User: Which sequence fits this backbone?
């Protein structure tokens, strides 16, 4: 086996106008496409008595809805937040699991970059790219702010962060809250990226050292990690929404 | 900026990913969550309604059964009463009819007896008349002359007395 090339950044494999296309983006699109196709197929001929694919999709959606509802505690509110929660979960999970398919990260082309020959895989797990995970994190945290403003009103919600009324201690706490919103984005994105990138590297390294049989348990591990990371991202978003929409006085 | 670049973060890519995600979110909302959640809700309502209906039906059934029992026992009691009344009335009527029949029979017998008595008396008196005439005629033949009315009477009375 030749040397292993591990790149922290996703490799560009093409251009679409001014937009570079990266190998991780292709995987993200694939995941989206699969989800949309499944969604349309499952609900195209939906019946009150479900069967087959409709049944499976309903079980997943219902499980997600009930989980979200347990945290939020109000069906109408849950309905408002549900699309974001479910999309995060389904997208992260699908992208993670797609990354485990053999060929991802191993099928590629050799390119000359800065006078060196390097290996560029055509496919890279969607969440092994900080752009994807950061995009998710920004969307999630931004949505949390919007839900908070909608639930409490702008001034009341802003009062959580900039508080002059209750003395200097509360002002300091407010500032810390503001910083924590930013740190949420960072922890969201790096946690997911770190886990999936590490998993990808692990699989690559193991496959190079011992290509047969031995990688199997690691594939199982990555399946598990993919599910856990999707759940963690989703549950944290849920909890943040719950906190943001809760009245301060209730605490 | 260099740090971000070395991590592979690219503004254009980041924006593209955010837009991708938001598009995915809306598409899934339209094609997946909306229909599925509506359907789940609809099914939930249907089941709830069904359970409620079943419960109501059961309650109704119990009520109807109770009503039916009540009506039946009431009908039994009424029927029994009617029969009893009819029986009592029939007895009274029968007694009355028998009594009336008895009366009538008695009356008929009495009339018949009276009539018989009358005709008997009539026959007797007629016979008495004939016999006395016959006696007078026989006496006239025997004596060879006419009897005067005084003698006739004496003789007749005597004869009838002995007769």
Assistant:
């Amino acid at each position: 086996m030749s040397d292993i090339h591990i790149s922290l950044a996703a490799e560009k494999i093409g251009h679409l106008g001014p937009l570079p296309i990266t190998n991780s983006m292709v995987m993200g699109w694939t995941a989206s496409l699969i989800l949309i196709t499944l969604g349309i197929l499952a609900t195209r001929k939906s019946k009150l008595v479900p069967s087959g694919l409709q049944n499976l999709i309903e079980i997943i959606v219902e499980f997600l809805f009930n989980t979200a509802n347990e945290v939020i505690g109000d069906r109408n509110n849950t309905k408002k937040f549900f699309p974001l929660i479910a999309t995060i979960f389904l997208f992260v999970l699908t992208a993670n699991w797609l990354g485990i398919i053999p060929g991802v990260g191993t099928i590629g082309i050799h390119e000359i970059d800065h006078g060196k020959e390097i290996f560029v895989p055509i496919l890279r797990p969607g969440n092994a790219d900080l752009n994807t995970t950061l995009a998710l994190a920004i969307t999630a945290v931004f949505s949390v702010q919007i839900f908070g403003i909608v639930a409490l009103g702008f001034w009341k919600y802003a009062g959580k962060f900039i508080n002059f009324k209750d003395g200097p201690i509360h002002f300091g706490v407010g500032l810390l809250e503001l910083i924590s919103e930013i740190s949420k984005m960072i922890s969201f994105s790096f946690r997911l990226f770190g886990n999936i990138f590490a998993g990808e590297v692990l699989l690559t390294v193991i496959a190079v050292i011992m290509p047969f049989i031995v990688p199997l348990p690691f594939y199982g591990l990555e399946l598990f990690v993919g599910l856990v990371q999707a759940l963690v991202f989703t549950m944290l978003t849920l909890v943040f929404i719950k906190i943001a929409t809760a009245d301060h006085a209730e605490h | 900026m260099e740090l971000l670049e070395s991590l592979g973060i690219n503004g254009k890519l980041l924006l593209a990913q955010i837009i991708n995600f938001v598009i995915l979110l809306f598409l899934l909302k339209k094609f997946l969550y909306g229909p599925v959640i509506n359907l789940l809700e609809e099914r939930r309502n249907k089941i709830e309604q069904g359970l409620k209906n079943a419960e109501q039906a059961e309650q109704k059934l119990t009520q109807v059964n109770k009503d039916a029992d009540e009506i039946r026992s009431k009908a039994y009691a009424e029927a029994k009463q009617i029969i009893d009344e009819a029986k009592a009335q029939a007895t009274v009527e029968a007694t009355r009819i028998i009594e009336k029949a008895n009366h009538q029979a008695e009356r008929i017998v009495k009339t018949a007896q009276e009539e018989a008595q009358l005709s008997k008396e009539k026959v007797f008196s007629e016979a008495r008349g004939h016999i006395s005439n016959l006696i007078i005629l026989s006496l006239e033949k025997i004596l060879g002359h006419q009897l005067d009315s005084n003698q006739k009477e004496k003789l007749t009375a005597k004869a009838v007395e002995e007769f």
Chain B touches chain A at residues 6-10, 12-14, 16-18, 20-29, 31-33, 35-37, 39-40, 42-43, 46 (CB under 8 Å). Helices of chain B lie at 2-6, 11-143, 149-162. The CA atoms of residues 39 and 45 of chain B lie 10 Å apart. The mean pLDDT of chain B is 88.
